[in-house]
Write a structure and sequence with these properties.
The complex is a heterodimer.
Chain A (H helix, E strand, L loop, with lengths): L1 E6 L2 E6 L4 H14 L1 H4 L3 E5 L7 H13 L3 E6 L3 H9 L11 H11 L4 E4 L8 E4 L2 E5 L7 E4 L3 E7 L2 E4 L9 E6 L3 E4 L2 E3 L11 E6 L2 E6 L5
Parallel strand pairs in A: 2-3, 3-4, 5-7, 6-8, 7-9, 8-10, 9-11, 10-12
Antiparallel strand pairs in A: 1-2, 11-14, 12-13, 14-15
Chain B lengths: L3 E6 L7 H14 L4 E5 L7 H4 L10 H5 L5 H4 L1 E2 L6 E4 L12 H12 L4 E5 L6 H8 L3 E6 L3 H16 L6 E7 L1 H5 L6 H8 L3 E6 L2 H9 L10 H13 L7 H12 L4
Parallel strand pairs in B: 1-5, 1-6, 2-4, 2-5, 6-7, 7-8
Antiparallel strand pairs in B: 3-4
Helix pairs in contact in B: 1-11, 5-6
The chains are: A alpha/beta, B alpha/beta.
Chain lengths: 220, 261
C-alpha cells in the first residue's frame, strides 16, 4: 500500500490505491515502527489519483509534524489535490525524479492548457504550471509564477513571474498593472523600471532577444 | 457561554501583538465581557509582563495541556477588572510542547468559560503560529506601516486563507500621522491597497504605550491617550458596534487642507 524510497531531497512516499483514511493510518503506522529513521526527515508524498482537500492534507501534515517529519511536497495526478497542496504552501513538483514529465511539458503545455486561479496570490505563494497561467486577482510581492506558456494577470502584478520557463520565447506576460519585482520570459530577465505616468494595462514580450513592455492598445 | 476565540498574529515580530492582546482584553473586560487572554508564545512569554501579572504565575498553558492542573487553576485573575484572566505561556519549554490539536481542545474548553478568548501568537509562521491559529474563530493580522511588516502580513494572510480559517481582519499599529503627511510613511490606504482585507482598527504611534507596557498597566485601563482610544474602538468593533475611524477622518481632512489628493 505504501512505498518509501530515498531521493535527493529526502524521502519519497508513494501511496497506492485505497481509501484515504487507510492510507494515512498505514503511513503513520510505518513511521511509528521506525521513529528514529523518520525523525527530522523531509518528506515528499506521491498521492496518485487521490482527491484531497485542505482539511485532510493539513491533518496529515500535522500528524507528520508531531513526529518531527516535514512534509514539503505533494505529487498528484489530480488537479484538485495539486491545488490543495499549493494552498497549503507545499511544492507540487520535485526535481530529477520525474524527468519524463519535465521533458514532455513544452509540447503538452505551451499553447494547450491554462491554469485558472480565481484569487489573489499573496506573498509566499508559488505556482508552477507547464501551460499558461491566468490569475483573476493580484500577484503580490513575494509571490511567484512559473509557467511554460504565457501569464495573464487580471489585476496588479507585483511579484516574480517567469513565462516560457522551458524556453518558449513566444510567451507573453500581461497585466492590468505590470510592475513585477522581476519578469522573465524564456532566458531573459528584467526588472520593472520606475513607473512614470498613469497606470495602464501592459503586455511584455521578447523582441529580438530583448524584453519590452508596451501599453495594451485596442488597435494595433 | 460560547466564547469567540480571536488570535492576534503578524508574521513579523515586534509589531505590537502582545500589547494589542493586553489592551483589547482590558477594553473588552471594561465593557463587562468575560475575557481570557492566552499567551501562545511558549518559551518567550511576555503577555504576563505587559499585563503586570508576572509575579502571580503558578501554572501555565503547558501545565493545563499536560494535565498537571485544571484549566481554572491556570487562569490568573486580573483584579483591576471584574472578569479578565490570563493563561500564561510556559517559559521553560518550547513550541513543540503543544500541538495544534491541543490548542483546539483548550479553546473548546475555554469557550464554555467566557465571552472572549484572545490568543497572542508568536512571531513567525512555524509551529507556534499554527498552534495559535488552530482553535481560532477569527484572526486579526497586525502590521506596522513598514514594507517588511506589510510583506510578512501578506504572507500570513495567505497562510490563514490556505488553512481555510476565513479572511483575517487588519489592525495597523504605530501609524505616525505626521510622517504619513510628509509622505515618509505608508498610509492606511497604501497598506489596504496591498493586503485588501477588512480594516479593524488603526492605532497611532504613541509613547505612552511603551510606558504602560513597562509599568505592566495596559493603556486602556485608564489613559485617555489616542492609542488607548484606538484599542477601545477595536474592542467595540469586535462587539459589533459601528465605530468611525477617527484617525482616518483626521488624515483626510489634513490632506484636503494641504491640497493633497
Amino acid at each position: 500500500m505504501i512505498d518509501i524510497k530515498g531521493i535527493r531531497d529526502g524521502l519519497l512516499v508513494k501511496l497506492g490505491e485505497a481509501p484515504w483514511a487507510d492510507l494515512q493510518a498505514a503511513l503513520i503506522n510505518a513511521i511509528d515502527e521506525r521513529p528514529a529513521f523518520f525523525k527530522g526527515a523531509r518528506l515528499a508524498l506521491d498521492v496518485g489519483s487521490q482527491v484531497l482537500h485542505v482539511a485532510e492534507l493539513a491533518a496529515l501534515r500535522e500528524l507528520l509534524s508531531e513526529r518531527g517529519i516535514f512534509l514539503w511536497a505533494v505529487l498528484s495526478e489530480s488537479s484538485v489535490s495539486e491545488q490543495t497542496a499549493q494552498n497549503l504552501g507545499l511544492a507540487t513538483r520535485i526535481s530529477k525524479t520525474r524527468p519524463e514529465a519535465a521533458r514532455s511539458a513544452p509540447q503538452a503545455g505551451a499553447g494547450e492548457t491554462a491554469l485558472w486561479l480565481a484569487h489573489t496570490l499573496r506573498s509566499g505563494a508559488r505556482v508552477e504550471f507547464p501551460g499558461h497561467v491566468v490569475v483573476m486577482g493580484d500577484v503580490n510581492p513575494g509571490a511567484e509564477i512559473v509557467a511554460g506558456g504565457s501569464i495573464v494577470v487580471w489585476g496588479r502584478l507585483r511579484g516574480v513571474v517567469h513565462a516560457g520557463a522551458q524556453g518558449e520565447a513566444g510567451a507573453v506576460v500581461c497585466a492590468l498593472e505590470l510592475s513585477p519585482t522581476q519578469l522573465r520570459i524564456a532566458g531573459e530577465i528584467a526588472v520593472s523600471p520606475k513607473r512614470k505616468g498613469k497606470i495602464q494595462p501592459e503586455i511584455a514580450r521578447l523582441q529580438d532577444g530583448v524584453l519590452v513592455a508596451e501599453p495594451w492598445q485596442t488597435k494595433e | 457561554m460560547t466564547a469567540k476565540v480571536v488570535t492576534v498574529t503578524s508574521g513579523k515580530g515586534g509589531v505590537g501583538k502582545t500589547t494589542a492582546v493586553a489592551n483589547i482584553g482590558v477594553a473588552l473586560a471594561a465593557k463587562g465581557q468575560k475575557v481570557v487572554c492566552v499567551d501562545g508564545d511558549i518559551g518567550l512569554r511576555n503577555l504576563d509582563v505587559v499585563m503586570g501579572l508576572e509575579n502571580r504565575i503558578v501554572y501555565d498553558l503547558v501545565d493545563v495541556i499536560e494535565g498537571r492542573c485544571r484549566l481554572r487553576q491556570a487562569m490568573i485573575h486580573d483584579k483591576r477588572l471584574p472578569e479578565l484572566y490570563l493563561i500564561p505561556a510556559a517559559q521553560t519549554r518550547d513550541k513543540s510542547a503543544v500541538s495544534p490539536s491541543d490548542m483546539v481542545r483548550l479553546c473548546d474548553e475555554l469557550r464554555l468559560e467566557c465571552d472572549w478568548v484572545l490568543i497572542d501568537s508568536p512571531a513567525g509562521i512555524e509551529r507556534g503560529f499554527h498552534n495559535a491559529i488552530a482553535g481560532a474563530d477569527k484572526i486579526i493580522v497586525m502590521t506596522n506601516p513598514e514594507i517588511s511588516a506589510v510583506r510578512d502580513a501578506d504572507r500570513v494572510i495567505g497562510l490563514v486563507e490556505a488553512e481555510e480559517k476565513g479572511t483575517p481582519e487588519l489592525v495597523l499599529n504605530r501609524l505616525n500621522l505626521a510622517m504619513v503627511r510628509r509622505g515618509d510613511m505608508l498610509s492606511v490606504d497604501d497598506v489596504l491597497d496591498l493586503l485588501a482585507i477588512k480594516l479593524l482598527g488603526v492605532v497611532p504611534e504613541d509613547e505612552s504605550v511603551i510606558v504602560a507596557s513597562n509599568r505592566g498597566a495596559p493603556l486602556t485601563l485608564d489613559s485617555k491617550s489616542k492609542a488607548g482610544q484606538a484599542f477601545h474602538h477595536i474592542a467595540r468593533r469586535l462587539l459589533g458596534e459601528e465605530v468611525p475611524f477617527l484617525e482616518l477622518e483626521a488624515q483626510r481632512l489634513w490632506q484636503r487642507l494641504l491640497g493633497r489628493k
